[in-house]
Design a protein that fits this description.
The two termini are 22 Å apart. The protein has 246 residues and is α+β, with helices and mostly antiparallel strands. It folds into 2 domains: 111 residues, no CATH class; 124 residues, no CATH class. Helix 1 packs antiparallel against helix 2. 26% of the residues lie in helices and 31% in strands. A hairpin with a 2-residue loop joins strand 12 and strand 13. The radius of gyration is 26 Å and the shape is elongated. The longest helix has 39 residues. Belongs to the flagella basal body rod proteins family. This is Flagellar basal-body rod protein FlgF. Its main location: other. One of its GO terms (cellular component) is bacterial-type flagellum basal body, rod. It comes from Methylobacterium bullatum.
Length: 246
């Protein structure tokens, strides 16, 4: 009976984790460049007794182990905005931005300029060019961003937006504000990343699928809770009957 309770609890913990992931995906359905995540779980079989003198051998008990999440790198839908400072990232590349904690990576191409003329994201982080931050004077006109990230105005080329890729993008960690961190050193994106000017990549989260997953998780959680409650009642009944016999 104890094993059944432990199995139920391990399932509930896994389902709660799955619920958190789904909730985060749903909260970012409208976040520019957001990449959804899905949970990974693994079955763990409890070792059985090694003695061979039992009339009936032990049965393995199956538990659930949380193995983290996987990042869905599928391309999100592209929406035309007409804003020359907006760029949609196509391919596997990430944009590099400077934060107080160092360089971080994003797919959010909703650029703008700050009062100092620096090219920044909508959250105010400086967009990094291949030669450092990109600055545009207020007097410059005709701004455009090419597919390779080249930023040009009427005064010529002002820089090139830095795009990078990772050997193992699944190792990227979410750090809030639609940013990713990585312990690995990125490499130049090259042909693996192109920019589409005047457009934004929207979230790749599919609300209908997430809602279906949410209903499945809630239904399963309720079922497991019911099983645990019945097991607890059964144990209480057994204790009372044993006390009556005594």
């Amino acid at each position: 009976m104890q094993n059944a309770l432990f199995v139920g609890v391990s399932s509930q913990v896994a389902l709660q984790r799955e619920l958190d992931v789904i909730a985060n995906n749903m909260a970012n359905v409208s976040t520019t460049g957001f990449k959804g995540r899905s949970s990974r779980f693994q079955e763990y079989l409890m070792p059985v007794a090694s003695a061979d003198s039992f009339h009936r051998p032990d049965r393995r008990v199956s538990y659930v182990i949380d193995q983290g999440t996987t990042l869905d790198l599928a391309q999100g839908p592209i929406e035309q905005t007409g804003n020359p400072l907006h760029v949609a990232v196509r391919g596997e590349a990430f944009l590099v931005v400077r934060t107080p904690n160092g360089d971080r990576y994003t797919r959010n191409g909703a650029f703008e300029t700050d009062p100092q003329g620096n090219l920044v994201t909508s959250d105010g982080y400086a967009v990094q060019g291949e030669g450092g931050p990109i600055q545009i004077n207020a007097q410059e006109t005709g701004l455009s961003i090419g597919p390779d990230g080249t930023v040009s105005t009427n005064l010529g080329i002002r820089g090139r937006v830095r795009m990078v890729t990772f050997a193992n993008p699944q190792a990227l960690t979410n750090e809030g504000a639609n940013l990713y961190g990585s312990a690995a050193v990125p490499v130049a994106a090259g042909i693996n990343g192109r920019l589409e000017s005047g457009a934004l990549e929207r979230s790749n989260v599919k609300p209908v699928i997430e809602m279906t997953r949410l209903m499945d998780v809630n239904r399963t959680y309720t079922m497991v809770s019911g099983v645990i409650s019945r097991l607890d009642e059964l144990r209480g009944t057994a204790i009372r009957r044993l006390a009556d016999v005594a």
